[in-house]
Amino acid sequence: MSATTRLPEVIESEAALDEVLTRPSARLVEFMRTLPSPVVILGAAGKMGPTLALLARRAAEAAGHRLTVIAVSRFSDDRVRSWLTERGVQIIACDLLDRRAVAGLPDAANVIYLVGLKFGTTTQPARTWATNILTPALVSEHYARGRIVALSTGNVYPLAPFAGAGSAEGDPLTPLGEYSNSCVGRERIFEYYSARNATPMALIRLSYAVELRYGVLADIARRVYAGEAIDVTNSRFQCIWQGDANEMIIRALGLTGVPPFSLNLTSTALYSIRATALRFGELLGRPVKFSGVEMTTGLYSNTDRLMARLGGPATPVEAIIRWTAHWIAQGGRSLNKPTHFEVRDGEY
Q1: What band does 3 get if pLDDT is binned at 50, 70 and 90?
Q2: Cα 249 to chain center, whole Å?
Q3: CA distances in angstroms from 305 to 95, 134, 168, 340, listed in the order given
């Protein structure tokens, strides 16, 4: 969504939400004209994939560009498959841990990689490592002649002081916990194959996408609405509207290089958990309870490179807060996928 696009006051339905999430900016429409067909999106059935695929499709249509968008996933949820098919996105069901299945995927000059496993790592660490390490190897081998934008995470960094400038892309990747270290491994595998095959890549360290059905804002708002205490231990957070994140992930195809170009993708500002909870209390007419002691360190990504290369997110966090409060007050659907924003030890 461009900065000049008029934002709605409220979002009343999932259809309206999906329209806002997948509305392309003029800048994205212009960029889509540069892409040869097809664009392949791997791991397209997760929280971000369906709207990213439709955003690419809508941007190509607005550009008058006959671009095929192919969404690849296991598609265990038939509703996601149908939602995409009805909107003109081509579907391929594929287990991306199956070497033969990956070898059968269509060639593409532009690949967006969204595969990742986070929650359940503490109880099933081997599954997380297989997903986050083996899948990048199979994909990199198959798409050696294309360019790949791979979604990573801000969890690859250690905790940083909020009084500083945040973790920058060139900082050491020394995080806590198995999940975060498997994500470092994912980046290293992509780096290895980029060097080996001269495959241009970009690694997008996202922190963290939000919309009205999930994300740190929805988590805080739902707890406030339910009268539950808000854990303020982590003190601060960053987030980005999912529509903005999806657009920047697509546009990052123009930033790929050898070695891979790494990029933090998040809000340019830090937000207080306490202040955000109090704002939701005001909007929802609820008293707010807190727990924990606020720390002075946490996950904090520097956005200087983002601002220089792609610009900042277009959607103000205050607007998302208002939308989220209205959504929850009217009984809007939740994906029931909590972010566990209070975690500090890397255990998910």
Answers
A1: very low
A2: 8
A3: 34, 29, 8, 27
Residues 3-22 as b or e (16 or more Cβ within 10 Å = b): eeeeeeeebeeeeebbebbb
Architecture of domain 14-329: 3-Layer(aba) Sandwich (3.40)
Q: What is the pTM of this model?
A: 0.96
State how far the Cα of 173 lies from the Cα of 302, in Å rounded to an integer. Answer: 14
The answer to whether the CB of 105 falls within 8 A of the CB of 40 is yes
What is the bridge-based pairing of β-strands 297-298 and 160-161?
antiparallel
Query: What type of residue sits at position 285?
Result: G
pLDDT tens digits along 170-224: 999 999 999 999 999 999 999 999 999 999 999 999 999 999 999 999 999 999 9
DSSP E strands, 191-344: 201-207, 209-210, 230-231, 236-237, 240-241, 261-266, 271-272, 290-291, 297-298
274 close to 294: Cβ distance less than 8 angstroms: yes
- CA torsion through residues 209, 213, 214, 218, sign: positive
The pair of structure tokens assigned to 299 is: 């996950």
Residue 7 token pair: 């934002």
Cβ(52)–Cβ(209) below 8 Å: no
Residues forming beta bridges with residue 241, ordered by sequence position: 210
Chain centroid to CA 209: how far?
5
Asked if residue 45 lies in contact with residue 80, where contact means CB atoms within 8 angstroms, the answer is yes
